[in-house]
Design brief:
Keywords: Golgi apparatus, Hydrolase, Membrane, Signal-anchor, Transmembrane, Transmembrane helix. The chain is of the alpha/beta class. 32% of the residues lie in helices and 14% in strands. The chain has a single domain, classed as Glycosidases (TIM Barrel).
């Protein structure tokens, strides 16, 4: 296992009229609450009108870019490299030629993979796979996806590989599979994992760690470890930084990896106005530093960042600039820290992570 690896969640669902003929995600609708009584207290429907009023609490320094814009990709991945990040966890919603291979706004991220791989290779950044819960996803379809990704992209030099036993394998983050804790579901995931072991499309398989039940899930499903993803400290047991030491020890005892996920803050109240309890202020960078300190202190040897560019949830570390909409309302920005502070600060923490790992390795 490569000690000190840092991976960042990277999203490909953005679009604008200049590149795509329409807005994508920057005009995201307000999401309803599942409880009618709570939903009645909040607005619903489409309330955002980019470019003046996008759906996110921050606005990128690049402007409201398209994920299909090659120059925007190059700019982002160069910043990713400057941040010391080893790989971008590419949000992937299924095969483009499948009817279910789309995200919630109908965007096919699969079609953009070749552009990202080439831009990442040019920048000297790796690419890992972040498999999202597309409609109809099953353990069996994920097995097919692993074969598909290997066939299409497995030999691209940008695909990031991790030492795993005697092999160098690509890394696959499986979002939201551990929610299915029944014995039958674990057996289906185990059958999928067993089917890829030793094959050309073998991979390091990491599932979402939501709570302590996921230790048994990771073991039973035959996965290699788990990551916590959520950037709101305390949202789940897994994303509660004070639990990371115990979670790492429990997985380590089973020979499995634990990857805590750090974030700079959290604010999704523009698209989920009923979710204010999970908002986490950035506190001029203090929140990010605190999460990183906990992540390095828990004994983990690899980490993920949520996120590089999930703008709708306000977890991005990508550069952001001040912005006012046409009515004069000011969007958030990084204040006196400056537009690129989180990129620079991530570089610091990535170097600390590698230094910490080197010290641990020297003691073994």
């Amino acid at each position: 296992m490569l000690c000190g690896a840092v991976h960042a969640a990277f999203y490909l669902w953005y679009g604008n009229p200049e590149t795509d003929g329409q807005w994508r995600h920057w005009d995201h609708a307000v999401l309803p609450h599942w409880s009618p009584s709570i939903q009645a207290q909040f607005p619903s429907g489409q309330l955002f009108s980019p470019p003046s009023a996008p759906h996110s609490p921050f606005v990128p320094s690049l402007g409201l870019y398209s994920s299909a814009d090659v120059e925007a990709l190059r700019s982002q991945l160069e910043s990713v490299r400057k941040a010391g990040i080893d790989s971008v966890m590419l949000s992937w919603w299924g095969q483009a030629d499948a009817s279910v291979g789309r995200d919630s706004q109908g965007v096919s991220t699969d079609e953009l993979v070749p552009l990202v791989l080439d831009a990442a290779h040019e920048a000297g950044v790796g690419v890992t796979w972040h498999l999202e819960p597309y409609g109809g996803r099953t353990p069996e379809s994920v097995g097919e996806d692993l074969a598909y990704l290997h066939e299409r992209h497995g030999h691209h030099p940008a695909v990031w590989r991790q030492q795993h036993g005697s092999k160098q394998l690509p890394v696959v983050f499986l979002y939201d599979v551990s929610a299915e804790h029944s014995a039958g579901e674990r057996e289906r995931w185990r059958a999928m994992a067993d089917s890829v072991r030793g094959s050309e499309h073998d991979a390091v398989l990491l599932s979402l760690f939501v709570d302590r039940r996921d230790v048994a899930f990771v073991v039973g499903a035959g996965f290699d470890g788990a990551y916590t993803y959520f950037a709101s400290d305390g949202f789940t047991q897994g994303s509660t930084s004070s639990n990371w030491g115990a979670a790492r020890e429990a997985l380590d005892a089973e020979g499995k990896m634990f990857l805590p996920s750090v974030g700079p803050g959290y604010n999704d109240t523009l698209i989920r106005p009923w979710n204010g309890a999970q908002t986490k202020s950035r506190r001029e960078g203090e929140y990010y530093d605190k999460m990183w300190d906990a992540a390095l202190s828990c004994g983990a040897t690899s980490w993920t960042i949520t996120s590089w560019n999930e703008w709708g949830e306000g977890t991005q570390i990508q550069e952001a600039r001040p912005h006012r909409n046409s009515e004069g309302w000011a969007y958030a920005d990084y204040g006196q820290l400056g537009e690129g502070w989180y990129v620079e600060r991530t570089r610091y923490w990535a170097e600390e992570a590698k230094r910490t790992c080197a010290l641990v390795d020297g003691e073994l």
